[in-house]
Specification:
Radius of gyration: 20 Å
Oligomer: single chain
Largest sheet: 4 strands, antiparallel
CATH architecture of the largest domain: 3-Layer(aba) Sandwich
CATH topology of the largest domain: Rossmann fold
Shape: globular
Helix content: 25-40%
Order of helices and strands: EHEHEHHHEEEHHE
CATH class of the largest domain: Alpha Beta
Number of helices: 7
Distance between the termini: 21 Å
Length: 212
């Protein structure tokens, strides 16, 4: 029987679907989660159920100590666990995307820079450091703009601003969202980029007669 370690963020709505799919496929599921490390012991949860996904360097040691058997794969259900999953796959000698690749594409600023360096089309963008005055960018912006947190997913921390007042408010809101989600938010800053008009399409997977 194949064995899969699943990294399940407590805020995800997809956890049950992944677990159900594993059972249907006859896969043994090992679960790790990011419950509060202070509350989890009182709930009787193992350390593997209270790891810090946003501190993958620390979390990997907790997970490895807790594993009784080596999994055949490590999968992150949501964006928050991608870097930890990549680190675990590397340490366990499993086939997966490299940690550096995952780290770079998760970071919206790093990803935009890669697009530009590679000659790919992308909107103009600016980095707004956490300690910078957002008003300093006003003379360089063309409305509307999009203010983005650097590492969040699911459209969290992504706000469109149509004028200077809306932009300053958006920066304040997105900073607050990022501060709650990322322990190193102070080092990240935000991304401010031009708005691209038109229809938006999101493609996560393609099913063909029940197969991806």
């Amino acid at each position: 029987m194949k064995r899969v370690l699943l990294l399940l963020p407590t805020t995800s709505y997809r956890n049950e679907a992944f677990i159900a799919a594993g059972k249907k496929l006859g896969v043994e599921m090992i679960t790790a989660a990011d419950y509060c490390h202070q509350l989890a012991p009182g709930w009787g949860l193992d350390p593997i159920m209270a790891v810090h996904f946003d501190r993958p360097g620390e979390a990997i040691e907790v997970v490895l100590r807790s594993l009784k058997h080596k999994p055949d794969a490590v999968l992150a259900v949501d964006d928050a666990g991608l870097e930890l999953a990549a680190l675990l796959n590397e340490r366990l000698g499993l086939v997966a995307n490299s940690t550096e690749a995952v780290r770079r594409v998760r970071d919206k600023l790093s990803f935009r820079r890669m697009q530009k360096e590679g000659g790919l089309l992308c909107p103009d963008f600016r980095h707004l450091p956490s300690d910078a005055d957002p008003a300093e960018l006003l003379s360089r912006l063309k409305w509307p703009v999009v203010v983005k947190a650097r590492r969040l997913s699911g459209s969290r921390g992504v706000i469109r601003a149509d004028n200077a007042q809306a932009y300053l408010q958006a920066v304040s809101w997105v900073k607050g969202i990022q501060n709650k989600a990322d322990r190193d938010a102070a080092d990240l800053g935000l991304v401010v980029e031009d708005f691209i008009p038109g229809r938006e399409y999101a493609l996560e997977s393609i099913l063909d007669h029940g197969r991806t």
